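The instructor's notes for this session suggest beginning with a concrete chain rather than abstract definitions. Hand out the sequence below and ask the class to guess, before any prediction is shown, which regions might be ordered.
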Amino acid sequence: MATMTKRLLSGSTNGKAIKVVATTSAGTAIHTAVSGTNDMDEIWLWAMNTDGSNRKLTIEFGGTGSPDDLIELELTSEAGLVQVVPGLLLQNGLHVKAFAASANVVTIYGFVNRITA
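After discussion, reveal the predicted structure:
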C-alpha cells in the first residue's frame, strides 16, 4: 500500500520562503525530487511578487528545455500568493529551480507530498 508524507521543500529553511535570486537559467534551487523511479514527489508551489512592478517568473520543472520543462507566468505586483505548481509529480532526483525578471523580489512557498510505494 502506498503512503504519503508531507515534507518541506528541500530548498527551504524550516519551511520559510525561498527568495528567487537568479535572473537566468539555471535558477535558484527550490526542490530536488526523491531519487529513483518507485516513489514520487507531488509538488505544490505558490509565488509572491513583492516588487512595485509586475515580474515574469520561470519555473524549471525537472530540466531546462523550452518549452517542455518551463512553466512561465507573470506575477502581478504585490498581489499576494499565486499558485504556480498545482501538485505536479516529479521523481528520479530531478530538480525544480526558478528565475525571475528581477532578483530578490519574488519568493516561493510550498510543500511536497512524498508518495512511497
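Then share the key points. DSSP finds no helices and nine strands in the chain. Residues 45 and 96 are 10 Å apart (CA to CA).
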